[in-house]
Specification:
about 40% strand; about 5% helix; single chain; mainly beta; 1 helix; globular
């Protein structure tokens, strides 16, 4: 109704920022030009499903490159470039366990 969703964080790829089992409040209504480097977003990835990652950079072709906060997270190279349409929501705040 208000464009907000509460999603449970699964896995440790965003630790220590978002730990496994915590919840995040995400905002779904935004313009892609509002996305900024270092924002945490929820993405519908074509191979990995719904993932939560941080925006690393926007390349010259208009694709986003993402990364996890945990050094053991899936690399940007393995995730590949993400089209703006695959970014579904922006993290507003986390809800601790």
């Amino acid at each position: 109704m208000f464009g907000l969703t509460i999603n449970r964080i699964v896995g440790d790829s965003m630790s220590p920022t978002l730990d496994d089992g915590e919840y995040g409040c995400f905002f779904c209504y935004f313009f892609h030009y509002e996305l900024k480097r270092k924002q945490i977003v929820a993405v519908d990835h074509p191979h990995f499903g719904r993932i939560v990652k941080r925006i690393s950079f926007l390349d010259s072709q208009g694709y986003y490159w993402l990364l996890g906060d945990n050094p053991n997270s899936l690399s940007s190279d393995k995730m590949g470039p993400i089209s703006p349409q695959r970014i579904k929501s922006i993290l507003l705040f986390k809800i601790a366990k």
